Amino acid sequence: MSSNRPRLLRVALVQEINHGDAATNLAVIEQRVAEAAAAGAQLVLLQELHNGPYFCQHESVDEFDRAEAIPGPSSERLSELAKQHGVVIVGSLFERRAPGLYHNTAVVLERDGRLLARYRKMHIPDDPGFYEKFYFTPGDIGFQPVDTSVGRLGVLVCWDQWYPEGARLMALAGAELLLYPTAIGWDRNDSEDEQQRQRQAWIISQRGHAVANGLPVLSCNRTGFEQAPGSEEGIDFWGSSFVAGPQGEMLAEASVDKPQLLVVDVDMARSEAVRRIWPFLRDRRIDAYDDLLKRYRD
């Protein structure tokens, strides 16, 4: 019989600006992970495509030069960092799988430095300023949680945040946490009301995944303005990295416009307690969901 006593996991989210190049960004990450470990964190989540700028604001074949193999230089550097500080790290890399075949890939590094698994982003956007379909092949690994020394992690990436199916499938496979490395922001030309509607929708949707699945959610976003190449336009990444509990309660939230190391304790025992009073998995009508496999019910 499971205990309802707290089982605290200290997590850290590294919300950063782009510092210009991979070497500098990784050096900053090394500093932030050291700070997180010194604060007692056992799990560190980094933002989406943390090695450089969010290059998907335009389409250019030259940007493919940023991609690298996994295992490769960046994943090995993160592995060494995980081992040095004894923390689990979830990073986000531009993966070169083969010539002409690239993915937006999250990596999970165990505290002893082992590369445990990767998750290839499943949902790929193609919107003004977010031209990801030009660069990334949709993931083919599926929604498979990763067993680590700190728990079973359901790792997804950014645009996956808007899809309840991905969160649900991770939960159904036994994920204990949902983690989202993210790069999202607003257009400076939008009204302030529109900007806030977008930011709140992003927060609400993920808190909804926490509620619907009875799981904590960790979402780590970029911050700062990044100008699109060859343009005066760009994206104001809205930061707001946060940790929510299994009832969607906000445990911690970072600033909108500043780099920040967010460190928070997550009670891993609460999920079972919450699921006992809100048994959503029990009451699912799996006999009536066949149409979810259709694009649309005409």
Task: Give your account of this protein's structure.
It is a single chain. This protein is of the alpha+beta class and 298 residues long. It has one domain (8-278): Nitrilase/N-carbamoyl-D-aminoacid amidohydrolase. Helices cover 23% and strands 30% of the residues. The chain has 5 helices and 17 strands. It has helices at residues 22-38, 73-85, 164-172, 192-213, 270-277; strands spanning 8-15, 43-46, 88-98, 101-109, 115-120, 126-127, 130-131, 146-148, 151-155, 177-182, 185-186, 217-221, 223-227, 234-238, 242-244, 250-253, 260-267. A 6-stranded mixed β-sheet has the order 5-4-3-2-1-17. A 6-stranded mixed β-sheet has the order 8-9-10-12-15-16, with helices on one face. The protein has a 3-stranded antiparallel β-sheet with strand order 11-14-13. Strand 4 (101-109) and strand 5 form a beta hairpin. The protein is globular. The model has no long low-confidence stretch (mean pLDDT 96).
Keywords:
298 residues, 5 helices, six-stranded mixed β-sheet, 17 strands, alpha+beta, Nitrilase/N-carbamoyl-D-aminoacid amidohydrolase
What are the SSEs and their pairings?
Elements (H helix, E strand, L loop, with lengths): L7 E8 L6 H17 L4 E4 L26 H13 L2 E11 L2 E9 L5 E6 L5 E2 L2 E2 L14 E3 L2 E5 L8 H9 L4 E6 L2 E2 L5 H22 L3 E5 L1 E5 L6 E5 L3 E3 L5 E4 L6 E8 L2 H8 L21
Parallel strand pairs: 1-2, 2-3, 9-10, 10-12
Antiparallel strand pairs: 1-17, 3-4, 4-5, 6-7, 8-9, 11-14, 12-15, 13-14, 15-16
